[in-house]
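[audit] Reproducing an earlier prediction to check determinism. Same input, same settings, fresh worker. If the tokens differ from the archived copy the diff job will pick it up downstream; this log only records the rerun itself.
[audit] input (174 residues):
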Amino acid sequence: MMVRIPSVSMALLLAVMDLYSPMPAVAQCRLCVTPSTGPEAETAPPVKLDVETNLDFDRLVLGGSGSGSAVLAPDGSRSTSGAIMTLGGRAMVGTVIVHGEPGRAVRVSLPGAITLYGPTGSEVRIDSIRSDLPSLPRIGSNGSLSFRFGGELHVSGGADGNFRGDFQVDVDYL
């Protein structure tokens, strides 16, 4: 006697038989990797930056069409030279707060110079960017590190107007 199995049932039968066929065992080679007996390493929280105050030279008075510079140091001290006669009374150093893993050493990179642009396309330049960071900065026990920065603004010719610019601060864990 011959039994006929419809082709759909045959495919189902083959699929069921396939489930019961032996599968290769997958295991980790314990000789290939150095075992770790300690707790899994925790990843450090990402570094976050907050700009608390912007660097602001306030108002400068440029005598004539000469050139000059204004220095605003990280400690807030100021001076002028050349054709710049005064530095406004509301000039402020920039302040940045770094948030991260408490006690971690960090590397902070500030730009060497910043170009500021006026509304008419004129430019002025801040260089000699300096901060009050220690030589080996470390995030405090409260999870933050605050530093102040300043620089030297160079103005020449008939530069007039409000000048603005952006710059990048890079912070990496060491």
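[audit] rerun output stored. Observation attached for the diff report: Residues 48-173 form a domain with the Immunoglobulin-like fold (CATH 2.60.40).
[audit] end
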